[in-house]
Amino acid sequence: MLIKLTGGTVYDPASGVDGQQQDIYIQDGRIVDAPKDGRPVDQEYDLHGKVVMSGAIDMHTHIGGGKGNIARTLLPEDHRADPVHRTHLTRSGTGHAMPSSFVAGYRYAEMGYTACFEPAVLPINARQAHMEMGDTPIVDKGGYVMLGSDDFLLRMLTAKKDQKAINDYVAWTLNAAKGIGIKVVNAGGINAFKFNQRKLDLDEKNSHYDVTPRQILQTLARAVKELGVTHPLHVHGCNLGVPGNVDTTLNTIQGVEGLPMHLTHIQFHSYGTEGDFKFSSGAAQIAEAINNNKNITADVGQILFGQTVTASGDNMRQHANHRFASPNKWVCMDIECDAGCGVVPFKYKDQNFVNALQWAIGLEIFLLVEDPWRIFLTTDHPNGAPFTSYPHLIRLLMDRSFRNDMLATIHPEAQKMTTLASIEREYTLNEIAIMTRAGAARIIGLKDRGALAPGNFADITVYTENADRQAMFAKPDYVFKDGELVVKDGEVVKVTWGTTHIVKPDYDLSIERELKPYFDKYLTMKLGNFKISDDEISEDGRGSLTTHPLHIGV
Amino acid sequence: MTEITEVPSPFCGIGTDDLTIRVDGVTLQVAANGCAVNTPAFEQPLTDSTPRIAGQAASLEAAVTKAAQLLRDTRQPVIGGCATDVNGMRALLALADKTGAVVDNINFNAARRNLLAMQDSGWMNTTLAEVKNRCDLLLIIGTDPEVFAPRFFEHFMWNEQAMFLESTDQRDVIYLGKTPAGKAPVSPSGKTPTVLACDDADLPDVVAVLSALIRNQPLQLETVGNIAVSALQKIADRLRQARYGVVLWSAGKLTFEHAELTVQAICNIVKDINMQGTRCSGLPLGGKEGDYTANQVCGWTTGYPARVNFAKGYPEYDPFLFDSQAMIANGEADALVWVQAYNSMATPPRTDLPTIVVGRSGMQLEHEPDVFIPVGTPGIDHAGHVYRMDSVVALRLKKLRDSGLPSTAEVLNAIEQAL
């Protein structure tokens, strides 16, 4: 079937198209050139006056894995307030902070998103992450596999194994757990917490291993680069949420010595210690460092006010922050000599000085980082706010007077501690398209996604131009996933199943000669049973794997 | 005859995956690393493989059609048992969503003791590999892990080497409540566990006193449940001195009223020790026959653990109201689907309601149901996934033989399609 999208105003930064009126043709799931043979169009959509972008991509959202299910189980009251009815097309479920997997897929699609990436896949829990993502309809998915607090890596580093051996282990793990990138959470800190260390600075040694977080970050960043994995090492830094952590973050940027590195939810890592409350914004310094270091990318992890739940691999910091739990209940886990997790419900309040300033710090970072290709729109769902708040966040970025109106309502002392009122920048539609589409596809390493040129998969979102950007982005007119109309007027009209994006870097098989006895001696599963097979993703008849190219020597 | 190695077990809850199984046609024999729980569960002979309608042999298609017919005009069906693998639970939840059914896991009343505590105040828990490599003190409250899983101590306490202990023989084991039934908790060098036994009925008071001691609350009494408070003080001191203490309990064994408060007290002991500058973690025993699998899959599908009602067109969770046994007894249900793919002894509750049983081959039913469909057992007759006791690790179960039996998922999906 040949579909024609006629006359829309297209924002396709990957092709350098910034608001031009263009027709788009779709056939067999892909965008194609205008037919030259006079073939008739089977279906035409008149998009005059509409805004056309590729489907949005959330490059950091907690949609699959054990900590998410702990968060769900912990908060039945949050689900009760947001029941989702079954329809003739869609499954029932529940929403708000940590929605059920089906509801997450529908709501993402209804917001114009066509791909989501789970950033904290513990290798030992990767099956669960894939099973949950396998029950998340419509959107494509993928995961970043967590390393850096696993005892095997720390033993390798202590034993001064060479980079090649580390690379083999990293590549083996990526293949076994089926990820598209590597994530580090509080490098070595989750491990140190098991040895009763309650904090770990960038250059502080693990009390058992002769290893610092800086070494872990350097080694893994190098491994990712040398393996040719497109997505840079995805880093949740040390000292999350600690006043003064802006220095740690700046040190982390310098410490990686020019290697590609992605700093995630950087808002939580941009705090100074100035002012009466010893809590201040480090956004200007962080933005300057990002602007000056082209190897660095970041997503913001914006907080928005209201009830949510924080679910993180960083049990060291989550344990330290449990006293802020609201409601007052929380879970921490040590996991399988692999990692850990911590789940703490949070209620961010605009009249709380710290929360109000966190809100302002996130926005400052968005607005002060100059290159939209290197900063990404996230709330670290659900940690800063549920993903359903993205349209509101987009309005804050695109509409200065709205932003300043909101600013005027937050804690007065926080207003004094932010430069937000003086920042004039308003994001353009093209910049929004970069940070939520083209840039995201590029940084994740997605081939043929996030762009509208012929040859790309037809993941397309159509909005009605509206000065109220929140209303505009909340309810697209049409969403096409792989060329099929899945959403009309902000509601699911067809349920499809997206693919799982992975990379498969090569490794020397001899790494299993070291891993097998380690598994037999110390772990609780056989090596052969640990590795996830392809059919585990595809045997339900819905899932599939898409392997993306590596960039060896580029 | 073939021999399959590194076979994972869905039966023992501790995620054993080192079994060697000989397969001769449809006959299985555990050739290595069996135990009193796993060996009979794997070796159980295959008997019936033909579905029945009202006791008469029927084709699978006819049985599925009949099941759909029984469910079609119901107002409050209940799906009990829920003992299957991940794909089985996926299909079960899809069927429940479509029919407006209650989904209620067979072990929910036990799991509820943990869930109520967790949903009220949370916990700090650990997983089996951490226990294996770090635990230097295991405090066992109100249960005997050897009875639950015969190889628990062999696997996780007396393992030859641990990464962070010079010798696993250094570990201390304390039983609070129960007396160990066998020799498994005795260390390789012969060190016996400390045992402070009490009646189950006294366990809440004993745990409360331990909790008060850990919080340094002044206490007037000298004994509780025939246990000297001074002995409990020693436990409190040991928890504070340990490098990585682990407190183990089994919700299924806390069979007294409001046991969730005792679970909460145990979880708070763990939290308090962590707040006092020492690491400590909880370890709830459970996870047999797919009960944690049911809670996990129901968790991501509905947002709630496996006692939900879809009657209103969306999932509602109530850990008490939607007790399927009580609903059947009180006349609140109008049909029963019983799903039990692991244990042919676990039969449905006695009822005159239209009943569909999707059960392990060989299920001995006292009362012939309207429809019986024998299904394969995950990890024997088909591949699948099942969670073990820490709810973190999902095992990839293997298919060991060609029995021709359909999986739970195939049967339930077919019924849903036929509706």
From TrEMBL, chain A:
The keyword tRNA processing does not apply. It is an enzyme of class 1 (oxidoreductase). Its EC number is 1.2.7.12. Pfam families: Amidohydro_3. One of its GO terms (molecular function) is formylmethanofuran dehydrogenase activity. Keywords: Oxidoreductase. It comes from the Bacteria. Residues 43-493 form the Amidohydrolase domain. CDD domains: FMDH_A. This is Formylmethanofuran dehydrogenase subunit A. It comes from Methylomonas aurea.
UniProtKB/TrEMBL annotation, chain B:
It comes from the Bacteria. One of its GO terms (molecular function) is formylmethanofuran dehydrogenase activity. The keyword Oxidoreductase applies. The keyword Cell inner membrane does not apply. This is Formylmethanofuran dehydrogenase subunit B. Keywords: Oxidoreductase. Its EC number is 1.2.7.12.
